[in-house]
Design brief:
The chain is α+β, with helices and mostly antiparallel strands and 278 residues long. Helices cover 40% and strands 28% of the residues.
Length: 278
């Protein structure tokens, strides 16, 4: 019995929409794993193949499936490479939306190209319900290659899930001068007069962190700001003042950042030099 399913692009895109919604609105679920595997290892390559090779002649089903898996890995790798040089970086949401957009665009191109062909010329998923056989020649080689590729991909995915690696965690800490730039800091001030700079903190620690900032002039603590509690990827900027009590040229004003209840600064101190006059 021969079964014909058409191009399969509509149900494929429906599954992509379901995956995007599941990841966006449900923090952790099994559905993202079930749909995530074909989303990364098959869907992008399949829609690209559908856009490039719309006719059913010239390529067997096993060749199309094999190339779809290979191209999917290439597309996802290229997307990750490009995202690495963007402000979004290689994170879940940017990768999800980028790959999903690629699938939608290539599906649209495939649909437009298919409308120009007759129904007989269009590629369609069809199979005959019979006992599977190995075939001969290249079919046997491609079948074995596909089986090895799928098993290897599943094994690698299982290893990644079983032994997840923690991504790089860090905190951005900076000070800004006048006009909100990394320049034009206060360079001259009178004793007892307050100087001010803008301090910025960005949390990339993968969790909520409580920060505090201390200002030290010489060996004396001049001011303290905090606690400033930031969620992961949250940013804070605020003005921090300091008041020198003794006159001196090139007096060092240090800004120290602490995390939670730690007694040692989590980063190297930032500082500016100020001439303090009487």
């Amino acid at each position: 019995m021969r079964i014909k399913l058409g191009s399969g692009l509509i149900p494929l895109n429906i599954l992509v929409v379901i995956l995007v919604l599941a990841i966006t609105f449900i923090p952790s679920n099994v559905l993202r794993i079930i749909l995530g595997i074909p989303f990364l290892l098959f869907f992008p390559g399949y829609t690209l193949m559908a856009a490039l090779f719309t006719k059913k002649e010239g390529m067997s089903n096993i060749q199309r499936i094999t190339l779809s898996c290979v191209l999917s890995i290439a597309v996802v790798s290229l997307v990750g490479f490009i995202l690495n040089y963007t402000p979004w970086g290689i994170r879940l949401e940017p990768v999800l939306y980028s790959v999903a957009s690629f699938i939608f665009i290539t599906s649209l191109v495939a649909w437009l190209r298919r409308t120009r062909l007759t129904e007989y010329e269009r590629f369609a998923i069809q199979f005959q319900v019979t006992m599977p056989g190995w075939g001969t020649g290249w079919h046997r080689v491609l079948t074995i290659t596909l089986a090895i590729a799928v098993l290897g991909a599943l094994g690698a995915l299982g290893y990644v899930i079983a032994t997840p690696k923690v991504g790089e965690t860090f905190t951005d800490f900076y000070i800004l001068g006048q006009e909100g730039k990394s320049a034009n800091y206060t360079s001259e001030i009178k004793v007892g007069e307050e100087g001010r700079v803008t301090v910025g903190i960005v949390n990339h620690e993968g969790k909520e962190v409580s920060y505090r900032v201390e200002v030290v002039i010489g060996s004396e603590k001049s001011a303290k700001v905090g606690p400033v509690v930031l969620a992961d990827e949250q940013k804070w900027e605020g003005e921090v003042g300091f008041v020198p009590e003794t006159p001196a040229e090139d007096q060092k004003i240090e800004f120290l950042l602490y995390k939670d209840d730690e007694v040692e600064p989590c980063l190297e101190p930032l500082y500016i030099w100020v001439d303090v006059n009487e």
